[in-house]
Amino acid sequence: MMQPSIEPEDQLPQTDSPTRQGYWSLVWWRFRKNRLAVFGGIIVLTFYLVCVVLAEPLSPYLLEHMSDYLEAPPQALHFIDEDGNFSLRPFVYGYTEIVDMEQMRRSYEIDTSVRYDIYFFVPAEPYKFLGLFETNIHLFGTHPDDPDAHVYLFGTDRLGRDMFSRIIYGGRLSLLIGLMGQMLTLLFGTVLGAISGYYGGFTDVVVQRTTEFLSAFPDIPLFLALAAAIPPQWSPIAVYFMLTIILSFVRWGGLARQVRGLVLSIREREYVLAAQSYGTNDRDILLRHLIPGTMSHVIVIATLSIPGMILAETALSFLGLGLRPPLTSWGVLLQEVSTVRAIRFAPWLLIPIPFIVLVVLGFNMLGDGLRDAVDPYSTQK
After folding, report:
1. Rounded-to-integer distance, Cα 307 and Cα 358, Å
2. Cys-Cys with 322: which of 43, 202, 316, 332 at CB 3.0–4.6 Å?
3. pTM of the model
4. Rounded Cα gap, residues 80 and 56, in angstroms
């Protein structure tokens, strides 16, 4: 009777079963099974890549480029002209200026008799890519030999600046404030929460009462008081960093409470008690055992909190309490639409709103997916 052959273990077919993987492999396996979370991660990465890394080459104009077309409507891309002729090269139509002397108002209409072809990788205004080397290549634009040609896909603002370019540049500051602010919040909240949970006693009382004191204030009056403390003569960069610190200062309390609760459960586990009995000092126990043990949850909390930072900056800048020109963020762009007249006659200036909503949704989907992924041993959906 023939005995069944037994294959060596390295020749057995490898499966994607989560039971044969380590913790972080399980987290990744669980995360990529969540299509909404993956989609949210793609949205977030795309925004950071476009707005933070590739803002200059992707924008047809630099940030402060001005034209004679003030509050001009968006130009649509066309591939078929008025006569029905198809063109592989996209193009836009020009503007016709209309002056209403009764209402003392200037407006623009699309002029189909004027056509501007769109070219890719065109030389235009010079810039320093990533601050390293100077170049003048932009992803798209009009013919460089035609000074009258223009392309304003999202229209222009009241000073004739291209809204498409300003949205990309504005996203850079808004996204960086959310990221940098959350990093500072992680630093404050994780360290203070771990210290509070580990030592307890008087230290715990001081930290927890401080978080309660900060959470007792309404956000807007607290932002008003802190923003008013910024000297008006400060440079825009100093205001940018101070706003980041302010947002971190008022939002670390919630994270500290959650980290404290995690540390209270972790500090009673065997490996922490063994480290204590071995004579390990408190600093090493905090840095090597307690804080790393909370990092999976902290990452999820941070991902879900970044949208709050972005929305807080947008709200503060919209109210005139945050970033101010010449700095440009999504909140600064929306501040220019804070009047009824702007909404009535230039509604395209509200275009930053869909981008804010999209990036917030992307972070929320990513955070929800990470929250499920860091607990891979729970019941599979």
Report:
1. 10
2. 316
3. 0.82
4. 29
